[in-house]
Design a protein that fits this description.
Length: 291
């Protein structure tokens, strides 16, 4: 009979250990993933902004010397991230690819203008920023027109602000929930040993002596859970890097390492604090309250 009870107790203890490890793993995995998203969100938003083009069309009588001078002007400018010269012949070929017809066959001439496709630096991707760049470019007398999507710029900036705000709010809420979940799992684990705690206290063991093995065990479980979380996060990053190289998930390697180290530290810190207070609660209870 006693052997069956012992087996039941062992299963219960093992189950409580597994639940703690799983709780720590899931919570820290989600927190770590969220942390990596936050630190990469600025770079991702900058990359998205810098893909919005500004097209500069030149007058028909603009020659190579004009283009060379404009090229040098863009290189010296503060707003241009990169740019590409598009000749009217290349523009006609692109038009034919898109629409499937050669308009020059029935027009007899190429009405398109030579142009530059310019991508601005992220700091300038606002309507005022584009406006300053446009004013500087239009000062060139050989420029025929400057075209960009003002509504898209406004929409992108507004949405980035909204997404950033909600991500920060959700991160704060999730951090609190995460601590509560891990704390609850550890409390349940220690609750199963409340009689052992009280027995040790009754025979004269000090609070620190009683608390020490529980804290040590919880920290070990926290380390196991956090290591599993780090491995899972690395797996996700490797998957994204292989299948979506444009995201450049390993570009900020120092920040990535800092987040992974933070996951390990957080796993130890949360389990240590939670176990300390959970054992303290049972140490302060009267014997009758244990039931």
């Amino acid at each position: 009979m006693s052997s069956k009870f012992d087996k039941f107790q062992k299963r219960r203890v093992i189950t409580s250990y597994v639940s703690v490890v799983v709780s720590v793993f899931l919570v820290l995995f989600l927190l770590g993933t969220l942390g990596l998203f936050i630190i990469n969100s600025k770079r991702l938003s900058q990359n998205f902004k810098e893909n919005i083009p500004m097209t500069v069309f030149f007058k028909a009588d603009a020659n190579d010397s004009v283009f060379k001078a404009f090229d040098a002007e863009l290189k010296a400018s503060k707003f241009a991230k990169d740019y590409k010269f598009v000749s009217k012949e290349d523009a006609a070929k692109e038009h034919e690819k898109v629409f499937g017809e050669n308009f020059m066959e029935f027009l007899g001439a190429n009405p398109l203008n030579n142009s530059y496709d310019i991508h601005l630096k992220a700091d300038y991707v606002t309507n005022p920023g584009f406006g300053k760049a446009e004013a500087q470019i239009r000062a060139n007398p050989m420029v025929a027109d400057v075209v960009y999507d003002k509504q898209l710029i406004t929409l992108v900036n507004d949405n980035i602000k909204k997404v950033t705000m909600w991500v920060l709010i959700i991160s704060g809420i999730f951090a609190v929930i995460s601590f509560l979940l891990i704390n609850s799992s550890l409390r349940l684990s220690i609750y199963a040993n409340r009689f052992i705690i009280k027995t040790m206290q009754m025979v004269g063991a000090t609070k620190s002596f009683i608390r020490k093995p529980f804290v040590k065990r919880s920290v070990i479980l926290g380390v196991i859970g956090s290591v599993l979380a780090v491995l899972a996060i690395l797996g996700v990053l490797i998957y994204l890097n292989v299948n979506f190289p444009a995201l450049e998930v390993f570009k900020d390697i120092e920040l990535t390492i800092a987040v992974l180290a933070g996951v390990l530290v957080l796993g130890v810190l949360i389990t240590w604090i939670s176990t300390h207070f959970a054992t303290q609660r049972f140490l302060n209870l009267r014997t009758d309250d244990l039931y």
